[in-house]
Write a structure and sequence with these properties.
Layout: E1 2-5, H1 11-22, E2 27-32, E3 37-42, H2 50-55, E4 59-63, E5 83-85, E6 88-90, E7 96-100, H3 107-119, E8 124-126, H4 144-157, E9 161-164, E10 179-182, H5 190-197, E11 203-206, H6 213-225, E12 231-235, H7 253-260, E13 265-267, H8 269-273, H9 279-288, E14 293-297, H10 315-332
Parallel strand pairs: 7-8, 7-14, 8-9, 9-10, 10-11, 11-12, 12-13, 13-14
Antiparallel strand pairs: 1-3, 1-4, 2-3, 5-6
Helix pairs in contact: 3-4, 3-10, 5-6, 9-10
This protein binds phosphoenolpyruvate and manganese (II) ion.
Length: about 325
Protein backbone atom coordinates (compact mmCIF):
# COMPACT_ATOMS: atom_id res chain seq x y z
CA UNK A 1 0.00 0.00 0.00
CA UNK A 2 1.27 3.46 -0.74
CA UNK A 3 0.24 6.79 0.77
CA UNK A 4 0.98 9.98 -1.16
CA UNK A 5 1.40 12.98 1.13
CA UNK A 6 0.21 16.47 0.29
CA UNK A 7 2.65 19.13 -0.84
CA UNK A 8 3.82 21.23 2.09
CA UNK A 9 3.76 18.38 4.61
CA UNK A 10 6.50 19.09 7.16
CA UNK A 11 9.13 16.51 8.13
CA UNK A 12 7.63 16.48 11.65
CA UNK A 13 4.17 15.66 10.33
CA UNK A 14 5.62 12.93 8.12
CA UNK A 15 7.52 11.43 11.05
CA UNK A 16 4.40 11.54 13.20
CA UNK A 17 2.48 9.55 10.56
CA UNK A 18 5.36 7.09 10.08
CA UNK A 19 5.48 6.45 13.85
CA UNK A 20 1.72 5.81 13.86
CA UNK A 21 2.03 3.30 10.99
CA UNK A 22 4.97 1.56 12.64
CA UNK A 23 2.84 1.05 15.74
CA UNK A 24 0.63 -1.09 13.46
CA UNK A 25 3.63 -3.38 12.87
CA UNK A 26 4.30 -2.00 9.41
CA UNK A 27 7.63 -1.05 7.92
CA UNK A 28 7.51 2.26 6.12
CA UNK A 29 9.64 3.16 3.16
CA UNK A 30 9.87 6.94 2.69
CA UNK A 31 10.44 8.26 -0.79
CA UNK A 32 11.15 11.99 -0.61
CA UNK A 33 10.67 13.66 -3.99
CA UNK A 34 11.11 17.32 -4.97
CA UNK A 35 7.42 18.00 -4.57
CA UNK A 36 5.74 15.02 -2.96
CA UNK A 37 6.56 12.43 -0.38
CA UNK A 38 5.38 8.87 -0.90
CA UNK A 39 5.19 6.36 1.92
CA UNK A 40 5.45 2.67 1.00
CA UNK A 41 3.76 0.51 3.62
CA UNK A 42 5.34 -2.92 3.91
CA UNK A 43 3.87 -5.84 5.85
CA UNK A 44 0.33 -7.01 6.51
CA UNK A 45 -1.68 -4.00 5.34
CA UNK A 46 -4.98 -5.92 5.42
CA UNK A 47 -5.81 -4.31 8.77
CA UNK A 48 -5.07 -0.75 7.63
CA UNK A 49 -8.21 1.38 7.36
CA UNK A 50 -7.63 2.97 3.94
CA UNK A 51 -10.48 5.47 4.39
CA UNK A 52 -9.10 6.66 7.72
CA UNK A 53 -5.58 6.99 6.36
CA UNK A 54 -6.88 8.81 3.28
CA UNK A 55 -8.89 11.23 5.42
CA UNK A 56 -5.85 12.56 7.30
CA UNK A 57 -5.05 16.23 6.61
CA UNK A 58 -1.60 15.52 5.21
CA UNK A 59 -2.58 12.55 3.00
CA UNK A 60 -3.36 13.20 -0.66
CA UNK A 61 -4.32 9.64 -1.59
CA UNK A 62 -3.89 6.00 -0.66
CA UNK A 63 -3.55 3.10 -3.08
CA UNK A 64 -3.38 -0.62 -2.61
CA UNK A 65 -0.70 -2.27 -4.66
CA UNK A 66 -1.67 -5.77 -3.59
CA UNK A 67 -5.14 -7.26 -3.14
CA UNK A 68 -6.69 -7.18 0.33
CA UNK A 69 -7.67 -10.85 0.08
CA UNK A 70 -4.92 -13.27 1.01
CA UNK A 71 -6.09 -16.83 1.59
CA UNK A 72 -8.36 -16.86 -1.45
CA UNK A 73 -5.66 -15.24 -3.59
CA UNK A 74 -4.18 -17.33 -6.37
CA UNK A 75 -0.81 -15.65 -5.83
CA UNK A 76 -0.58 -17.34 -2.45
CA UNK A 77 -1.97 -20.67 -3.69
CA UNK A 78 -1.30 -21.12 -7.43
CA UNK A 79 -2.95 -24.56 -7.74
CA UNK A 80 -6.73 -24.84 -8.23
CA UNK A 81 -8.53 -25.90 -5.08
CA UNK A 82 -10.68 -28.99 -5.38
CA UNK A 83 -13.69 -29.18 -3.07
CA UNK A 84 -14.94 -32.70 -2.33
CA UNK A 85 -18.61 -33.31 -1.67
CA UNK A 86 -19.36 -36.98 -1.10
CA UNK A 87 -18.28 -38.62 -4.35
CA UNK A 88 -18.49 -35.34 -6.23
CA UNK A 89 -15.58 -32.97 -6.78
CA UNK A 90 -15.57 -29.37 -7.96
CA UNK A 91 -12.56 -27.46 -9.26
CA UNK A 92 -9.18 -28.32 -10.75
CA UNK A 93 -10.76 -29.94 -13.81
CA UNK A 94 -13.63 -31.60 -11.93
CA UNK A 95 -17.10 -30.40 -12.92
CA UNK A 96 -20.30 -30.76 -10.93
CA UNK A 97 -23.93 -30.35 -11.86
CA UNK A 98 -26.03 -29.15 -8.95
CA UNK A 99 -29.73 -29.48 -9.73
CA UNK A 100 -33.10 -29.57 -8.00
CA UNK A 101 -36.07 -27.41 -7.15
CA UNK A 102 -35.88 -23.90 -5.80
CA UNK A 103 -37.74 -25.13 -2.71
CA UNK A 104 -38.55 -28.46 -1.18
CA UNK A 105 -42.35 -28.71 -1.35
CA UNK A 106 -43.28 -32.30 -0.52
CA UNK A 107 -41.82 -35.78 -0.21
CA UNK A 108 -43.09 -36.83 -3.65
CA UNK A 109 -41.76 -33.69 -5.30
CA UNK A 110 -38.24 -33.83 -3.90
CA UNK A 111 -37.80 -37.58 -4.36
CA UNK A 112 -39.11 -37.47 -7.93
CA UNK A 113 -36.91 -34.53 -8.92
CA UNK A 114 -33.88 -35.96 -7.11
CA UNK A 115 -34.18 -39.27 -8.97
CA UNK A 116 -34.71 -37.53 -12.30
CA UNK A 117 -31.75 -35.16 -12.01
CA UNK A 118 -29.55 -37.98 -10.83
CA UNK A 119 -30.48 -40.04 -13.90
CA UNK A 120 -29.67 -37.02 -16.07
CA UNK A 121 -26.17 -36.60 -14.63
CA UNK A 122 -26.55 -34.32 -11.61
CA UNK A 123 -23.94 -34.95 -8.95
CA UNK A 124 -25.47 -32.82 -6.18
CA UNK A 125 -29.13 -32.23 -5.27
CA UNK A 126 -30.19 -28.67 -4.44
CA UNK A 127 -33.39 -27.60 -2.68
CA UNK A 128 -34.24 -24.75 -0.36
CA UNK A 129 -35.80 -25.45 3.05
CA UNK A 130 -35.28 -21.96 4.48
CA UNK A 131 -36.12 -19.48 1.73
CA UNK A 132 -35.11 -15.82 1.51
CA UNK A 133 -38.22 -14.30 -0.12
CA UNK A 134 -38.65 -10.68 -1.08
CA UNK A 135 -42.22 -10.69 0.23
CA UNK A 136 -43.06 -11.77 3.78
CA UNK A 137 -46.36 -13.13 2.38
CA UNK A 138 -44.66 -15.48 -0.11
CA UNK A 139 -43.96 -19.15 0.70
CA UNK A 140 -41.09 -19.11 3.18
CA UNK A 141 -39.97 -22.71 2.70
CA UNK A 142 -40.71 -25.81 4.76
CA UNK A 143 -37.94 -25.13 7.26
CA UNK A 144 -36.90 -28.10 9.39
CA UNK A 145 -39.46 -30.37 7.68
CA UNK A 146 -37.90 -29.45 4.35
CA UNK A 147 -34.48 -30.47 5.63
CA UNK A 148 -35.89 -33.82 6.74
CA UNK A 149 -37.26 -34.42 3.24
CA UNK A 150 -33.89 -33.51 1.74
CA UNK A 151 -32.22 -36.10 3.97
CA UNK A 152 -34.77 -38.65 2.73
CA UNK A 153 -33.97 -37.73 -0.88
CA UNK A 154 -30.25 -38.09 -0.12
CA UNK A 155 -30.88 -41.55 1.32
CA UNK A 156 -33.06 -42.58 -1.61
CA UNK A 157 -30.67 -41.42 -4.34
CA UNK A 158 -27.25 -41.24 -2.73
CA UNK A 159 -26.89 -37.64 -3.96
CA UNK A 160 -25.21 -35.18 -1.61
CA UNK A 161 -27.42 -32.20 -0.80
CA UNK A 162 -26.95 -28.45 -1.01
CA UNK A 163 -29.32 -26.14 0.84
CA UNK A 164 -29.34 -22.58 2.11
CA UNK A 165 -28.57 -21.50 5.66
CA UNK A 166 -30.09 -18.11 6.47
CA UNK A 167 -29.64 -17.92 10.21
CA UNK A 168 -26.83 -19.02 12.52
CA UNK A 169 -29.36 -20.47 14.99
CA UNK A 170 -30.15 -23.22 12.46
CA UNK A 171 -26.55 -24.33 11.97
CA UNK A 172 -26.96 -27.41 14.20
CA UNK A 173 -29.76 -28.66 11.97
CA UNK A 174 -27.31 -28.65 9.04
CA UNK A 175 -25.01 -31.36 10.45
CA UNK A 176 -25.99 -33.81 7.67
CA UNK A 177 -26.12 -31.21 4.92
CA UNK A 178 -23.26 -31.71 2.46
CA UNK A 179 -22.98 -28.19 1.04
CA UNK A 180 -24.18 -25.13 2.92
CA UNK A 181 -25.40 -22.44 0.57
CA UNK A 182 -24.97 -18.82 1.58
CA UNK A 183 -27.44 -16.98 -0.62
CA UNK A 184 -26.95 -13.78 -2.55
CA UNK A 185 -28.80 -11.74 0.07
CA UNK A 186 -26.50 -12.98 2.81
CA UNK A 187 -23.21 -12.67 0.96
CA UNK A 188 -22.19 -9.91 3.36
CA UNK A 189 -23.77 -11.30 6.51
CA UNK A 190 -20.39 -11.37 8.15
CA UNK A 191 -21.51 -13.13 11.35
CA UNK A 192 -22.98 -15.94 9.26
CA UNK A 193 -19.78 -16.15 7.18
CA UNK A 194 -17.64 -16.40 10.31
CA UNK A 195 -19.81 -19.18 11.75
CA UNK A 196 -19.73 -21.32 8.61
CA UNK A 197 -16.00 -20.60 8.49
CA UNK A 198 -15.66 -22.43 11.81
CA UNK A 199 -17.06 -25.61 10.24
CA UNK A 200 -15.23 -27.71 7.67
CA UNK A 201 -18.29 -28.09 5.44
CA UNK A 202 -18.21 -27.09 1.79
CA UNK A 203 -19.79 -23.65 1.44
CA UNK A 204 -21.43 -22.44 -1.77
CA UNK A 205 -21.13 -18.67 -1.58
CA UNK A 206 -23.40 -16.83 -3.99
CA UNK A 207 -22.49 -13.39 -5.30
CA UNK A 208 -24.72 -10.62 -3.97
CA UNK A 209 -27.16 -8.87 -6.29
CA UNK A 210 -25.06 -5.72 -6.33
CA UNK A 211 -21.66 -6.86 -5.22
CA UNK A 212 -18.33 -6.59 -6.96
CA UNK A 213 -16.07 -9.57 -7.47
CA UNK A 214 -13.67 -8.11 -4.95
CA UNK A 215 -16.46 -8.01 -2.37
CA UNK A 216 -17.32 -11.63 -3.20
CA UNK A 217 -13.69 -12.58 -2.64
CA UNK A 218 -13.56 -10.66 0.64
CA UNK A 219 -16.61 -12.63 1.81
CA UNK A 220 -14.87 -15.87 0.84
CA UNK A 221 -11.87 -14.58 2.79
CA UNK A 222 -14.11 -14.30 5.87
CA UNK A 223 -14.90 -18.01 5.61
CA UNK A 224 -11.33 -19.09 4.90
CA UNK A 225 -9.83 -16.87 7.58
CA UNK A 226 -11.84 -18.84 10.16
CA UNK A 227 -10.20 -22.06 8.98
CA UNK A 228 -12.59 -23.46 6.37
CA UNK A 229 -10.85 -23.92 2.99
CA UNK A 230 -13.89 -25.55 1.30
CA UNK A 231 -15.40 -22.56 -0.45
CA UNK A 232 -17.13 -22.63 -3.85
CA UNK A 233 -18.02 -19.31 -5.48
CA UNK A 234 -21.24 -18.90 -7.42
CA UNK A 235 -22.03 -16.28 -10.06
CA UNK A 236 -25.83 -15.94 -10.18
CA UNK A 237 -26.34 -12.70 -12.06
CA UNK A 238 -26.17 -9.13 -10.86
CA UNK A 239 -28.65 -6.28 -11.01
CA UNK A 240 -28.22 -3.96 -13.97
CA UNK A 241 -30.51 -1.58 -15.89
CA UNK A 242 -31.72 -4.49 -18.03
CA UNK A 243 -35.14 -5.75 -16.97
CA UNK A 244 -35.87 -8.35 -19.63
CA UNK A 245 -33.93 -10.88 -17.62
CA UNK A 246 -34.27 -11.19 -13.83
CA UNK A 247 -30.58 -10.33 -13.46
CA UNK A 248 -27.67 -9.99 -15.85
CA UNK A 249 -25.38 -13.00 -15.95
CA UNK A 250 -21.84 -11.69 -15.59
CA UNK A 251 -20.05 -14.54 -17.32
CA UNK A 252 -16.77 -12.68 -17.37
CA UNK A 253 -16.81 -13.32 -13.62
CA UNK A 254 -15.71 -16.89 -14.37
CA UNK A 255 -12.34 -16.15 -16.03
CA UNK A 256 -11.79 -13.12 -13.79
CA UNK A 257 -12.29 -15.20 -10.65
CA UNK A 258 -10.11 -17.95 -12.06
CA UNK A 259 -7.34 -15.38 -12.48
CA UNK A 260 -7.75 -13.95 -9.00
CA UNK A 261 -8.48 -17.03 -6.91
CA UNK A 262 -7.82 -20.76 -6.69
CA UNK A 263 -11.39 -21.44 -5.52
CA UNK A 264 -13.86 -23.24 -7.82
CA UNK A 265 -16.48 -21.15 -9.60
CA UNK A 266 -19.96 -22.35 -10.49
CA UNK A 267 -22.66 -20.52 -12.44
CA UNK A 268 -26.38 -20.42 -11.70
CA UNK A 269 -28.18 -19.59 -14.97
CA UNK A 270 -31.62 -19.95 -13.32
CA UNK A 271 -31.49 -16.97 -10.97
CA UNK A 272 -29.35 -15.10 -13.50
CA UNK A 273 -32.01 -15.15 -16.23
CA UNK A 274 -35.29 -15.79 -14.40
CA UNK A 275 -36.61 -17.51 -17.55
CA UNK A 276 -36.63 -21.26 -18.15
CA UNK A 277 -36.21 -20.78 -21.92
CA UNK A 278 -32.88 -19.00 -21.40
CA UNK A 279 -31.40 -21.44 -18.89
CA UNK A 280 -30.00 -24.09 -21.31
CA UNK A 281 -28.14 -21.53 -23.46
CA UNK A 282 -26.61 -19.81 -20.48
CA UNK A 283 -25.68 -23.13 -18.86
CA UNK A 284 -23.89 -24.02 -22.10
CA UNK A 285 -22.19 -20.62 -22.15
CA UNK A 286 -21.13 -21.11 -18.52
CA UNK A 287 -19.53 -24.44 -19.37
CA UNK A 288 -17.76 -22.79 -22.33
CA UNK A 289 -16.47 -20.01 -20.09
CA UNK A 290 -14.60 -22.57 -18.01
CA UNK A 291 -16.93 -22.77 -15.01
CA UNK A 292 -16.29 -25.63 -12.59
CA UNK A 293 -19.97 -26.46 -12.35
CA UNK A 294 -23.48 -25.21 -12.81
CA UNK A 295 -26.44 -24.95 -10.48
CA UNK A 296 -29.86 -25.26 -12.12
CA UNK A 297 -33.41 -25.16 -10.79
CA UNK A 298 -35.41 -28.19 -11.91
CA UNK A 299 -39.06 -28.86 -11.02
CA UNK A 300 -41.29 -31.80 -11.95
CA UNK A 301 -44.17 -29.38 -12.57
CA UNK A 302 -42.79 -25.83 -12.99
CA UNK A 303 -46.18 -24.18 -13.49
CA UNK A 304 -47.22 -25.31 -9.99
CA UNK A 305 -43.92 -24.52 -8.24
CA UNK A 306 -44.24 -22.62 -4.96
CA UNK A 307 -41.15 -20.59 -5.76
CA UNK A 308 -39.30 -19.62 -8.97
CA UNK A 309 -41.48 -21.67 -11.34
CA UNK A 310 -40.81 -19.32 -14.26
CA UNK A 311 -37.10 -20.12 -14.25
CA UNK A 312 -37.43 -23.82 -13.45
CA UNK A 313 -36.85 -26.36 -16.19
CA UNK A 314 -38.35 -29.85 -16.31
CA UNK A 315 -36.31 -33.02 -15.73
CA UNK A 316 -36.42 -33.75 -19.49
CA UNK A 317 -35.10 -30.29 -20.29
CA UNK A 318 -32.41 -30.81 -17.67
CA UNK A 319 -31.40 -34.07 -19.35
CA UNK A 320 -30.96 -32.16 -22.65
CA UNK A 321 -29.05 -29.37 -20.95
CA UNK A 322 -26.83 -31.86 -19.21
CA UNK A 323 -25.97 -33.52 -22.52
CA UNK A 324 -25.18 -30.15 -24.14
CA UNK A 325 -22.96 -29.12 -21.25
CA UNK A 326 -21.14 -32.44 -21.52
CA UNK A 327 -20.49 -31.90 -25.26
CA UNK A 328 -19.17 -28.42 -24.63
CA UNK A 329 -16.88 -29.58 -21.88
CA UNK A 330 -15.43 -32.22 -24.19
CA UNK A 331 -14.99 -29.63 -26.95
CA UNK A 332 -13.02 -27.20 -24.78
CA UNK A 333 -10.93 -29.78 -22.99
C1 LIG B 1 -31.67 -20.00 -4.48
O1 LIG B 1 -30.65 -20.58 -4.85
O2 LIG B 1 -32.77 -20.55 -4.42
C2 LIG B 1 -31.59 -18.55 -4.18
C3 LIG B 1 -32.47 -17.97 -3.38
O3 LIG B 1 -30.58 -17.96 -4.83
P1 LIG B 1 -29.96 -16.48 -4.71
O4 LIG B 1 -29.50 -16.35 -3.28
O5 LIG B 1 -28.87 -16.49 -5.71
O6 LIG B 1 -31.07 -15.51 -5.05
MN1 LIG C 1 -34.77 -19.99 -6.47
Amino acid sequence: MIAILKQGTTPEQTQHLVDWLKRMNLDVHISQGQEVTILGLIGDTSKVDMELLGSLDIVESVKRVSEPFKQVNRNFHPKDSIVEIGNAKIGGGYFSMIAGPCSVESEDQIIEVAQAVKDAGATILRGGAFKPRTSPYAFQGMGEDGLRLLFQAKKATGLPICTELMNIVHLDLFADVDVIQIGARNMQNFDLLKEVGKTKKPILLKRGLANTLQELLMSAEYIMSEGNPNVILCERGIRTYETYTRNTLDLSAVPVLHELTHLPVVVDPSHATGKASLVPSMAAAAAASGADGIMVEVHNNPSCALCDGAQSITPDQFADLSHRVQLIREAIR
